[in-house]
Batch of 3 targets.
Target 1
Amino acid sequence: MFKCTLHKLLFLLCIGIAPSLVWADVQVTLFSDINLSSWSGTGNLVDTNELCVYRSNTGQNTYDLSVTENEGSFNFRAGGYSIPYTVKVNGASVTHGSTHAMSNASNTSGCGGTPNVTIEVTVLESALSAAMADAGYQTQLIVTVSMP
């Protein structure tokens, strides 16, 4: 089964489970959009998204998580212009396309309402200052959860 959910233009959450393998049921819930507000002219733009990764297999709490973007790097784009941004997972900086072994999957559906993964996107003031104004920048961040 392969399931993708589009969340506006900022996030595409994809969960891939190979049908030929017998794995525990996996759910990702509590996910919402990251909304970077309009830039005031000073400071960084930062927003976070908290979500729940659940495995139905009691005692099995490991999974792999990767964060990518269609263009090969973390950048908002508009025409020939781009604005770089950084991504953190649970407070740790991540590199585009790298896979991170996680060991905090919940065995409670919906994590009992308490998220176990935080995704943070930061756009630095220096990058925003150098950007072309009102160019309609967009990106699509892809968070993939899979079983190791």
Note: The first strand starts at residue 2 and ends at 7.
Target 2
Amino acid sequence: MIVRFNRRQTLRAILALVLSVLSLGLAFLFFRFALGSISRSFDLDWEGRTVVVGSILIVLLIFIGGLFSYSRSHGHSELTESDLLLDSLDSSTGGSHFVGHYARRITGPAYFLSQLFLAGPLQMGKAVSCLRSRIAVSRDLETDLVSTLAFAREKAMWHGVAEYSGREKYLSYLIRMGFVEYSSRKGRVRFIERDCV
């Protein structure tokens, strides 16, 4: 049971790491292209190395900001929660309807790019969390988890955490592994029917 959980967490961490690297790579390519276009458009004499270093610095700032956001338990935001949605425009006049139409044409791609760039640090944080949530493999711990799980299965309905006196650590592991559901509002747990082997 512990080995399978650890294997699943490791695979999730690897997938999150691959997604993080892919997202950061796409962000780097985007900003390299954008800085190169700015350099050509304004006849700036930026060398290729300046564009690459500038792109790396921008991606690094995005990465640090994303990790800070992840550490504060913030993740991806929905378009309706972001500042990019201009829902408050009065569309009763032709001018405001016209402005709203063009604003939505800009906010959609801007929102997509912001979420794509933010995916790098958020997936990196998720990968680290998955690796840190693994449980040390021990035959005694496995036995205690199986017995605590059997106790939870006998109850079959929501019941109080106080019934696990002396087994709180095992209960928290079972909650982490997804075998037991926990309601923090009521302080109650229940068994979730899953393959426990």
Note: The chain has two domains: 2-132, 139-191.
Target 3
Amino acid sequence: MQRIILILCLHLISIDIHASGEWLLERDENGTKGYCKVHESGYKYCKIEKIFPFTLKELVAINTDASYLASWMETAMYAEQIEKVSDTNYVNYLQYDIPYPFRDRDSATRTHITQDSKTKEIKMEFKTDNSIREQSIEFEPMEFIFGYWKFIPISKKESKVEYAVLVLPGGNLHSVLFNPSAVDVPWTTVQNMEKELLTGRYKKTDINYIENF
């Protein structure tokens, strides 16, 4: 019991120390870097950075292929697009595998895609919009998800990728249990995305609303 109390106290102290807004490096392996900081909710907000040998169109193509997202996004079991306002404004529905004894989660997230006309940098910002889908009795809805993909061109065939995500899973999955692996899910997602892109699946995809560098 005393050990549990000590762990909780140390966790609260770490939140107080790291809530300054500074990104802290948590993983650094083979050119990939993972940073986190603690959100005011107590949950970690993490981002992954890596330079890839892929074009802007390839990176956007894989992230807008809704039905294929679950094949490479870590913890995702199912994905589909349930609303499309335009190519750059849409809602995806996803289901997530959560370790026992917690219930699996689901979410509806709205994505907005923008591209800077001068630098050609692309940002895909997403946020939960669970109001557009009825709650399932099988899944517990994610309380809140916010994040973005940033694709920064370095050359015609090379781009820096930045993937940041904050997840508040809701229910009884407290930050003390969630935070230790918070950086690992986006880290694995980025690694999986690279493997998929290396197959050449999206190499010839033509996306007319995106300009390559």
Note: Confidence is low (pLDDT under 50) at residues 1-20.
